[in-house]
Amino acid sequence: MSEKEVLEGLEDVIALESKISRIELVDGTAILEYRGYDIRDLAKKSTFEEVCYLLLYGDLPKKYELQDFKIELAERRELPPQIIGLLTHLPQYTHPMVVLRTSVSYLGSLDKKLHEKSREECLEKSKSLIAKFPTIIAYFHRIRMGKNLIPPTLELSHAANFLYMLHGEEPSSTAERALDMDLILHAEHELNASTFVARVAASTLADMYACVVAATGTLMGPLHGGAANEVMKMLREVATPRRAEEYVKKKLEMGERIMGFGHRVYRNVMDPRAELLRGLAKKLSEEKESIWFKVSEAIAEAVYKYKKLLPNIDFYSASVYAALGIPDDLFVNIFAMGRIPGWLAHIMEQYENNRLIRPRAKYIGEKNKEYIPLTRRE
Ligand code: ACO
C-alpha cells in the first residue's frame, strides 16, 4: 500500500454520493437542505410526518399521500406484547437509549422478514420503526416511574401523541408545534457519526434493525447526541446568567470542552438548526417563564468571547426539552426519535447502490517481532 496521509476523524473526506441532504457553506452562511428543500422552509411550514415522507420517498407528499402516510404511521404505534414485556423486565436504572437499542434489536427478532431488502419491505420496516420509537420511549419512562401506560391514540400527530403518552395529557398546540419542529430539525444531517455507522452496517448487507441498533448506540455518545444531556447538566450547574462567564472561563482554563459548542462541519458559521432552535427556545422559555434560555444565552456569549465557538443543535435542544417537561435522560432519545427517518433513508440508499465500506488504517505498531513460546516468556 502506498503511503497516504491519514485524515484524522475522516475530516472533509467525501466517502460516498447521496441525494438525501445538502450542507454547503456559501459566503459565511450554511445551507442545509433535505432532498433539495431548505431546512428553514421545512421547519416553519411542514410537519415531521411530511419530512419523514420526504426523506423516505424522495419528495414531498401530495395531500392524499400525506393523509395515507399519517394513518399508516399511527396504525403502527402500538408495541407487540413481547416488547412491553421487555420494557417491564429491564432494570429501571437502564439508560433509556440502551432500552431503545435493545428494543430495536428485539423488534428485529420478531420480524419474520428480517433479511428482506426490497424497497417495499424496507418502507414497511421504516414506517414501523418511526411509529414505534415514541411508544418505546414513553412506555419505558412510565414503567420506571411506576405509572400506568397511556396507549397511543390514532387522533394525534406524531409529536402530540408522544407528549400525550409521556405526560398523560394532551399537549398545548405550542408544545406540539415545538416538538414537531425540533424533530424536523433533527431528522437528517448527511454523514454524521450515527448515520455513517448505519451506512457502514448497511454496506455489509446487515438487516435494517442491525443498522439502526448500530446508529442508536453511536448517537448516545456525548460528542454526538449525548451532548444535549450534558448541556442540561451545565445549565443546572450554572443556574443563573451571572455565573455563566466565570463557569465558562474556568472550564476552558482547565482544558475542558463546553458541551453544545463546536461542530465538525459548521466551523465558523452558525449551524442553521441551532439558529432555528434558538428562536424556539426563546419563545418557549418566555411562555413558560423558564430561566434556561437566559442562562443559555449568557453561556453562548462567554464561549464566543473566550473561544470563538458557536453553539450547535444540541445546545438549544436542552432548554427546549426542559420547557416541554421532558426528563434530562430522555434528551438523546428525542434526538433519536427525530433522526430515525434520516438513518432509514440512508440505509435504503446504501442498499440500493451498495459497495462495502472498508477503509484502511496506517499501521504504526511494532514490526517483525520474534515469536517467543509461552514457556520462555518472563
Ligand atoms: N469546547 C471547547 N473547545 C472546543 C470545543 C468545545 N465544545 N469544540 C471544539 N473545541 C476546540 C478544540 O479543543 C480545538 O481547539 P485547539 O485547536 O485549541 O486544540 C478546536 O476547537 C477544534 O476541535 P476539534 O476537536 O478538532 O473539533 P472536531 O471537529 O474534532 O470536533 C465536536 C467536533 C466533537 C463536535 C467538538 O466540537 C466537541 O467536542 N463539541 C462538544 C460536544 C458536542 O456539543 N457535540 C454535539 C455535536 S452536534 C451533533 O452531534 C448533533
CATH architecture of the largest domain: Orthogonal Bundle
CATH topology of the largest domain: Citrate Synthase, domain 1
Biggest beta sheet summary: 3 strands, antiparallel
Q: Largest beta sheet: what is the strand line-up? A: 1-2-3
Question: Low-confidence stretches at least 5 residues in length (pLDDT < 50)?
Answer: none
Top CATH class of the largest domain: Mainly Alpha
Helix and strand content put the structural class at mainly alpha
Question: β content, as a range?
Answer: under 5%
- Shape estimate: globular
Radius of gyration: 22 Å
Please, how many domains?
Answer: 2
**Annotation field: number of helices:** 16
Q: If you average the pLDDT, what whole number results?
A: 96
CATH superfamily of the largest domain: Citrate Synthase, domain 1
The hetero compounds bound to this protein are: acetyl coenzyme *A
- Helix/strand order, N-terminal first: EEEHHHHHHHHHHHHHHHH
